[in-house]
Design goal:
Length: 683
């Protein structure tokens, strides 16, 4: 039996229960689909403003492509037609003109209105072969498993075709030319044939990536799958969403476009030869004959790999490589050298400078292409391993910082950017009362919820502990707040169960800042978002606030504010009998401390501030001066903490208005006595 679970003609029925599954997924995915309309509308607005760049147009083209499939899938045939027109208009091969903007804007308005209406009662499908969305063929004897996978695929805007035996699966693959195949190797009667189909698909032209599902985790089986060309090896018991996450990763790679290579050489003949060699294999080669223009070209191109000649006038390839390696943004960029020198000393010099590989002159096309492909794929693999937080599945802090810098560069060219800082409310209490395993489940769920709520081009990262950071490209503060509030509403209605059977709920607080209104760089945006986060917590937690003045929110009064990245000092005060009765707040960032404590409407009013002098970024003395300028010292006593301050720095702090100074390391009784003395000095 062969079944198509994408929209079909009335003569083709969806599988039993598939229509209900599709409707349920529509309710879950409605917000995500409408956010794709946001992307298209942002591109049209940029076109009207004369600021539509290639990257935004490509993003809008991809969003419209997904809307074409999603509209037909979920019972919005007219929306599908409108999205198809927008997809064609945003095709990277073409170029929409300013004169097209009013028509495209009208299409987008109609598209949104249609999708905000109710879907058709019966989920229908297009004829087989109708190219709406990427195509997935699912081959499994387990019809229930196949339907669940198909329903999840539909929810992601994909076409899903199901077959229950190898022969039908081979026919479907030949007819549909799928973008990905999910092949269940647990075919009791057809195991050998399934492996044969795997090999056939891997060798077809064009090859279809095959992800295998298996009930075993045998190493020998893994080797067999790899030998026959499999691209994934997943347990059959894995949740459908996680299986489709792997499919999404394969599709993203497929749509990522060609590999971008920058070739730097002062010899025009070499540049022409290398460009011809790379272009013939689908690699996008950009050549540069002036090494002094390397930096500007890197910024504009953002290549996947750089090829450098060793010997060039004015600056050598080795010097350029060292410059690249010393810049954090480009430190992991693969660098391949072209050289005629193969003696051990010369080769050692290349690797000492940070080279990843080298190719000797004269250049052989197969060798050059193989080395470039292998290096780019290997770096991509390493990044995927190091850039993903193992517990939550979202980006790590380092990977997110790079991505946020790229979004910031786009924002400086006119594309909006919102940055959100999220902190789980009372998370320490979850760990203390329900155990760290329960806390881990909460973090995993929040990570999954944020990934499901926001688009693939957005940045979702775990910043550390229970704090998450979002970077939302193309969104204003207010748009970002609406999207984040939807996620918060989902979370606050969920129930978690601890090991002892007790149920509990979790919420978060969030602050959102927008570029350029709230900051021109990441540091400024984080400080503004962090201030809004504290305002959200002070206003009762379980809410999302944007940066800006907050009329009607009274300042919270606390006894001690600790301006320190390390929370250990706050914990020490909480555990110390002499200070345990005091209310204590920790602020990690100096900018955030000034924003929270200063200004005409401060968020916090502290009786005592413990301020670390030796801070990264804005140092403690600068923070003190800004607090003094904001007249905070009239109502607050500041005690400076330092490990290496000179006598002149101590004197300078006292002259600015610090109440006291304590050298690290200090004893708890001394710290307690100094805090009491500061509190007693208050009028």
């Amino acid at each position: 039996m062969s079944t198509t679970t994408t929209p079909q003609h009335p003569a083709s029925a969806t599988p039993d229960g598939a229509a209900d599954a599709v409707r349920a997924i529509w309710e879950r995915r409605r917000g995500e689909v409408l956010e794709r309309v946001d992307v298209v509308e942002a591109a049209i607005a940029a076109l009207l403003a004369g600021a539509l760049d290639d990257e935004l147009r490509a993003t809008a083209h991809r969003a419209a492509h997904k809307l074409t499939g999603a509209g037909a899938t979920f019972g919005f045939p007219r929306a599908s037609e409108l999205a198809r027109e927008l997809e064609l208009a945003m095709d990277p091969a073409g170029a929409p003109h300013l004169a097209d903007a009013p028509r495209l804007a009208s299409l987008a308005v109609d598209l949104r209105a249609d999708l905000e209406d109710e879907p058709a009662d019966t989920v229908r499908a297009t004829a087989p072969g109708h190219d709406d969305g990427d195509c997935v063929v699912i081959l499994s004897e387990d019809e229930a498993l196949a339907r669940r996978l198909a329903a999840e695929a539909l929810g992601r805007g994909l076409r899903a075709h199901v077959a229950t035996d190898v022969t039908e699966g081979a026919g479907l693959a030949a007819a549909q030319r799928p973008d990905v195949v999910l092949l269940d190797l647990h075919l009791a009667r057809q195991g050998a044939a399934a492996l044969g189909l795997l090999e056939q698909l891997a060798r077809s032209e064009p090859a279809a990536p095959v992800v295998c599902l298996t009930a075993t985790q045998s190493f020998t089986d893994r080797i067999e799958v790899v030998r026959r060309g499999g691209r994934g090896y997943l347990p059959r018991a894995l949740p459908e969403g996680e299986v489709l996450d792997v499919v999404d990763q394969l599709l993203r790679r497929r749509h990522a476009g060609t590999t971008r290579v920058l070739v730097v050489d002062d010899d025009h003949a070499i540049l022409s030869a290398v460009e011809a060699l790379l272009s013939s294999d689908g690699v996008e080669a950009t050549t540069l004959d002036d090494p002094l223009r390397l930096w500007d070209t890197l910024e504009a191109l953002d290549p996947d790999l750089v090829v450098l000649d060793v010997d060039m006038p004015e600056v050598s390839g080795i010097e350029l490589c060292r410059v690249i390696r010393n810049e954090p943004r480009w430190s992991r960029l693969p660098v391949l050298f072209l050289t005629a020198r193969t003696d051990p000393e010369s080769v050692q010099a290349l690797f000492d400078a940070g080279a990843d590989d080298y190719v000797t002159k004269p250049i052989l096309a197969p060798e050059l292409l193989t080395r470039i492909t292998n290096r780019v794929e290997r770096v991509a693999l390493y990044r995927s391993l190091s850039d993903v937080d193992a517990l939550t599945g979202v980006a790590t802090r380092g990977a997110a910082t790079e991505a946020l810098e790229r979004l910031l560069a786009l924002s400086r060219r006119g594309r909006p950017l919102a940055v959100a800082v999220i902190d789980l409310d009372g998370f320490k209490r979850v760990n203390d009362q329900h155990g760290h395993a329960a806390g881990d489940r909460v973090l995993q769920r929040v990570g999954a919820l944020l990934q499901a709520t926001f688009r693939g081009e957005d940045v979702v990262a775990r910043w550390g502990g229970e704090e998450f950071v979002l970077g939302l490209s193309g969104s204003s503060r207010e748009e970002a707040a609406r999207r984040l509030e939807r996620a918060l509403d989902v979370l606050r209605h969920e129930r978690f169960v601890a090991a002892d059977g007790r149920g509990f709920a979790v919420t978060f607080s969030a602050g959102i800042a927008g570029h350029p209104d709230d900051g021109d760089d990441l540091r400024g945006l984080f400080a503004a978002a962090d201030t809004a986060l504290y305002q959200a917590k002070d206003a009762g937690r379980d809410r999302v606030l944007t940066a800006g003045p907050r009329a009607g929110i009274s300042a919270q009064r606390v006894d001690v504010v600790v301006v320190e990245e390390d929370p250990a000092l706050s914990a020490l005060l909480a555990d110390n009998p002499g200070t345990a009765a005091l209310s204590v707040r920790t602020i990690a960032d100096g900018e955030a401390a000034v924003s929270a404590l200063g200004g005409p409407e401060p968020v916090l009013r502290a009786r005592v501030v413990l301020l670390d002098v030796d801070r990264p970024g804005v140092d403690g003395l600068t923070v003190l001066r800004r607090l003094a300028a904001g007249r905070v010292l009239r109502r607050t006593r500041v005690i400076m903490l330092s490990t290496s301050s000179t006598e002149s720095e101590v004197v300078a702090a006292l002259e600015v208005g610090a109440f006291d100074h304590i050298a690290k390391p200090f004893s708890v009784p001394i710290l307690t006595q100094r805090i009491r003395r500061a509190l007693e000095s208050m009028p």
